[in-house]
Amino acid sequence: MPFMIGRAPLRRTLNYLNAGKLVLKDKIKVFSVAYNIIGQNNAGAKDFVFWYLPQIQYKNPDVQVATLKNLTPTPFIKCYLEDGKQILVDIDNKSKEEILEHLLHTIGKSKDVLEAEAIAAEKKDNPANFGAGCERACMCEIYGQVPCSGVVTLPKVMRGKYKNAD
Question: What is the pLDDT of residue 9?
Answer without folding.
Answer: 79
